[in-house]
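Q: Could you write out the predicted structure for this multi-component system? I'm mainly interested in how the pieces pack against one another.
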Amino acid sequence: MRMVDIYIMGKRYEVPSNLTIIKAMEYAGYRLVRGVGCRAGFCGACATVYRTAGDYRLKIGLACQTVIEPEMYIAQIPFFPVKRADYRLDELEPTFEALVKLYPELLRCLSCGVCTKSCPQDLDVKDYMADAMKGNIAAVAQKSFDCIMCGLCAARCPTEEPQYRIALLCQRLYGKYLAPKSKHLEDRVKEVQSGKFDEELKGLKGMDIEALRELYNRREIEPE
Amino acid sequence: MSYTPEMRESIKRVEATRPARLGKPFPRMGPEERQDVLEKFHPDYRPEGFREIRVGPNKGEKAMKELVDILEGRSHLTSNMLDLDRIDYDTDVLVIGGGGAGASAALLAKENGAKVILATKLRFGDANTMMAQGGIQAADKPNDSPVIHFLDVMGGGGFTNDPDLVEALVMDAPQVIQWLEGLGVMFDKEPDGTMFTIHGGGTSRKRMHAARDYTGAAIMRTLRDEVLSYPEDIAVLEFAPAIELLMDEGWQVAGAVLENLETGEHLVVRAKCTIIATGDSGRLHYQGFATTNHYGATGDGVVLAYRVGARLIHPDTYQYHPTGAAYPEQIVGQLVTEKVRGLGAQVLNVDGEQFVYHQETRDVESAAIIRECNERGKGVRTPSGMCGVWLDSPMIDIIHRPGTIQRELPAMVRQFKRFGIDMTVEPILVYPTAHYQNGGLAIGPDGSVKGVPNLYAVGAVTGGVHGRNRLMGNSLLEIIVFGRRAGRAASLRSKEAKLGKLTLAHVDAWHRQLEGAGIETNVVSPILLPDYTRKVR
């Protein structure tokens, strides 16, 4: 096992070279409460900023998905005080005006692109912010969809934009108001409410297990 | 971290058999063969993984060893440790747990007029819900019906499910999809609005709805945002796990003691009704398996409710997801969504041969993979000594059209790309991983915990909905269906519940029971977090 030196908040630890940042911290002796979550790259709890020796540039990553490098300087950002606008979705309209009213700082965006460089999901944050400034809610919703709300974009933004919260608002506006409606879903909900399936279901519930098993083994399966 | 030369040789054999495998389905197992492979290879059938529970409502029954260890644990508290007259929070409904189940319950409790506190161990939304990728089932297509869904669920669970709970699950499902969409969840659709749905293991109709492969994340961030829209009705307490339920003199549940995970401070919450939505227990690492579960999935709610008299159903079964990552080492155990198989990727051994139909139910699929690796010795060895089988992901683009993998599975592609593997052109290596607690607290269709007044439970902490094996896409469905039901029921119940003086006498009684059964233990439970810290001097 090759060992390397890393620096957790400036303090040196010697750890095996193949570990992720999370596992390296645990190897060093940390019992994590903050800065750890799903450990699979989905929750955004373990946003981390780091730098490697000899390089002035700051890099970012999710601690659970990033393998350590020798001479890596690590700081986690488990919480960042980002504004959430006060709204109720059913009182909104899916318009540019609604976005700007809730997040007027949207118009201060410089399109500098630091957000895009800071995204561990490799989303083009700058691009969807440009769509937001044009009021193209559908485009924001689609382009930001893979966002895990780790907050690194907001943490590094020079104009203090809450990008990921604007993105979530656009996703919700799109899902509720702009996405095409499913007729078959509306029909089925009405059918269930009208009691259409009650009797048949009661019949199945009343069957003994062997009869039910027989029915199950013979059931028709929709082709792939 | 790309594949070793030996693995590359094996991949060549996978590629060689691909043309012959395309369009030629491998036969499904018959009922006897299914039972046989389960009994011989599924971890639930390994006697050494289980032991008898010596105390409490399920005394004398077998359960997973790791679960029994925490069930038989001592409390963090004794009755004389806290002044219960000093109440920090007084509320109608206390929801313990900040995943999809807890958030749904909080919203419906609020909607029905209750003041709500939602307390969660880590951040709000840090939960297995966030990690659910593949989808959510609902019978909303014309060729499908809740009745067919019912039959699939019962058969998938080996007919051990509670039919009343299954009825609630399948009948509420279409409405739940509509509710989620009304809150702004973006489901995958055709341009005309038709839901894009596919199969999951054990489904007889294509009823798996998805939001790319971030289905749970999309649902969770939406529910969380909705809860945060009502701060005057729902107070959210983060980093505040429940360490014990409170009761009153009439032996009703009356809230909980929370612990501030950062300062150690104890908080007394008096609540007319309490909803346990603490999730799974995969972080107990049953039988040494890696897990797909969230860091906080330590079975807390089962422990809390068991001490106040709740019964467990099926505490002797756990679900192993057939396709956990087996390589590279850094992501071993992490979920490879069943949607990969749903889109057509087959499962293959070291010689590129199929040995099981790729859409068997999870228990059977897992058992067949374990058989291939352990008995037949036809798995693929990794440098760290693990064994796995190939999941032939590139087939998806061949079956559908180029770009499908990237469009339908962006999270999976990203996950492997971070470690130098491109699953759009190379297969990925998988092995079963601890995934889902099939059993748990016994509840009624309104989420009420059987035999314990004022207590409700929702989600993975409960049992009965899925029997001894859950189908893909029914747990996201379950948490919303029963979250809504429990939220509504608890809210209504809270209007008539009358509480007496608070007590922790049940904790002392529990300790006496442990002593009476001759149990000596160092375990203090709920354990709250797994301990992965290397022991330093």
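A: Regarding packing and overall arrangement: Chain B touches chain A through 89 residues (CB under 8 Å).
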